[in-house]
Amino acid sequence: MLMTVEIRRGTARFTERDVGRATRHAFSFGADYDPARISFGPMICHDEHLLGAGRGFDAHRHAGLDIVTWVVSGALTHADSLDGSSGGSHTLVPGEVGHLHAGAGVEHSEIAAAPQTRFVQVWLRSDDDSEPSYDVHAVSPGPLTEALTVGGSTLWVSRLAAGESVTLPEAGPLHVYVASGALLRNSLAEPLAAGDALLVADGTGPLSVTAAIDTELLSWRLSAADQTT
């Protein structure tokens, strides 16, 4: 089966700005509605945030989502309305992935704890209305490290040196995001820069990519239960 591949450039994302904050949205969000950019499988939000010290998002409520956060640089303090070991407060730093299962509903806040913090956040639709929870997972450096599985979707983190190649997980839907660095041209795609994404809608063949410079990739193999929109 042939792969269906699309490149989504970071420069084409809808950018929302406020004092001390810039957010680039990959999918329709708020006042920006694009019927061709509603979701990709269960992924309904893939945002890149840049925050100044003490800036961020005050307490707000979510339900019916799994929210996954990866800090590229700086530090981000998460606080929530949960009690005990399932929640509270934690400052995420590079090398950690935070997972908030919103379940039936939870409040949380996210505030930068460094002079400048850049992080990527993904929202996945969830029908699991169990008790909300928050977990943090440390991710070991490597060319393809499984960081987290949420429902039927799995996140891999790749840290590649210049010239190093990696074969990404097979089958689709597959969402590959260049968090930092750049990828060389390959048989399926033009070169990719930081902020760009490669979306593979279907196909079962392996996809190999090569770093042009030191590069960090966030690759989601998404549940096929939800169709691409």
From TrEMBL:
SUPFAM superfamilies: RmlC-like cupins. InterPro entries: Pirin, Pirin_N_dom, RmlC-like_jellyroll, RmlC_Cupin_sf. Pfam families: Pirin. Residues 20-124 form the Pirin N-terminal domain. It comes from the Bacteria. PANTHER family: QUERCETIN 2,3-DIOXYGENASE. Belongs to the pirin family. This is Pirin-like bicupin family protein. It comes from Nocardioides panacihumi.
